[in-house]
Amino acid sequence: MAGEAELTPTGYIQHHLQNLTASVGEGTFWTLHVDTLVTAVLMGLVIVFAFWAATRKATPGVPGKWQAFVEICLEFVDKQARDTYHGPSKLVTPIAITLFFWILMMNLLKMIPADFIAKPLELMGVHYWKPVPTADVNATLGMSISVFFLMLFFAIRAKGFGGFTKEFLTAPFGKWMMPFNLILNIVEWLSKPISLAMRLFGNMFGGEIVFLLIWVLGGAGIIGALAGGAFGLGWMLFHLLVIPLQAFIFMMLSIVYLSLSEDAH
Q1: Which parts pass through the membrane (predicted)?
Q2: pTM of model > 0.70
């Protein structure tokens, strides 16, 4: 770490919450969070490779341990998708699998102490790297906006463009209350992706700050190290539940929204 501010706990935390950015075009018209993009793509490739490794040696008889584990995970997600979504689309289960396991892999990076990633990167000349993509609101908004466009696609495919537009303008109060219907439906549709993104981001970002605070506490002498170790272990065990739970909630709400978008009001 370069800079005197990093000698203080505040500087240390701010340093680890700083994204590695790159500007596109003149000035700062478009700023990319390079660490979020690289880490998210890397975690996606990891889960694809893990599933590919399970299918590569798949057998119709007694499965191996990894194949059995992957099959159990996929069957769990498939069952949740089938129980929640009752429409005709066959895309919902692949969407649910992608969302759940991708978010789960990104969330799991929280279990790696920040310095375990930051220190090696500093030796390579990279001084800022925020390791958890889901602790970046840009990543969670990107995923939720993708779900929003899927909702529009499912709704228009099920009702037709005319039927969707008519329902958007006339439900729930009838055609004579069209302005109120329009405002209500706009708020309803926009609130879904925003709440999806903010729920996941808030939990992951808050957890990241607590982990950093505990890490700082561990550097405050022997008593601080003992307290930091105890608090860190407890918070880590708690996050073993939070990490898959947040991925599950994002997946389930996405399926519910896709199902609701096809239903008539």
Answers
A1: 37-55, 91-117, 137-156, 209-231, 237-260
A2: yes
